[in-house]
Amino acid sequence: MPEPHVIRLRGPWDYEPLVRVFCAADGSRREVADGLPPPGRVHLPADWGSTVGFDFRGRVRYLRRFGLPTNLDSSQRVWLVIEGVDYFGVATLNGTRLGELVGYAAVAEFDIGFLLTERNLLALEVELPAYEVGPGPQRPGRETLPGGPIGEVRLEIRS
After folding, report:
1. Which residues pair with 131 in a beta bridge?
2. Position 2 confidence tier, pLDDT thresholds 50, 70, 90
């Protein structure tokens, strides 16, 4: 088997807008859960422009179910690779927090072999807040674009 063996988790993913997020000039945050766009399904990678709206600023949860990779031997490990979110995020597998994700150019890798079961649930919560003053985080080339999981999400089986 070539190294690493890649399983792309393109979809479908279920998504659900959780809150609109506003950051004030004094650093305080306000979250609003009223009048959110409806949930749905999407294939990734993709920003949320075509699903929750081009101007949506807030937090969206993405869920993807997948089975246990087959034919693993004792020398192989399963890694989750997330090639970037725009702009902040948290990855969770089967209810266990894996870590934070920051930036669309930052790749995150997590050794998940010890968490895998026959049926698995991967959750990505991605947030791009609206900023009252200033542009917010540096997003060269994406300043006016929507947020979301814009990088590939995949499993890598490594020896």
Report:
1. 23
2. low
Average pLDDT on 77-84 reads 97
Q: Name, in order, each residue with C-beta under 8 angstroms of 49's C-beta and a sequence gap of 6 or more.
A: 145, 146, 148
Coil, strand or helix: which one is 101?
Answer: strand
- Amino acid symbol at 73: D
On average, the pLDDT of the chain sits at: 95
Fold annotation for 5-158? Jelly Rolls (2.60.120)
| 3-class state of residue 111 by DSSP | strand
CA distance 15 to 42: 7
**Domain ranges (residues) in the chain:** 5-158
- What residues contact 18, with CB distance under 8 A and at least 6 apart? 33, 36, 58, 59, 60, 61, 125
Amino acid at 33: A
Q: Please state whether the predicted TM-score (pTM) of the whole model is above 0.70.
A: yes
Q: Strand runs (DSSP E) across 5-69, as ranges?
A: 5-8, 13-23, 29-32, 40-42, 58-67
User: Which tokens is 98 given?
Assistant: 């894996």
Give the contacts of 70 (CB within 8 A, at least 6 positions apart). none
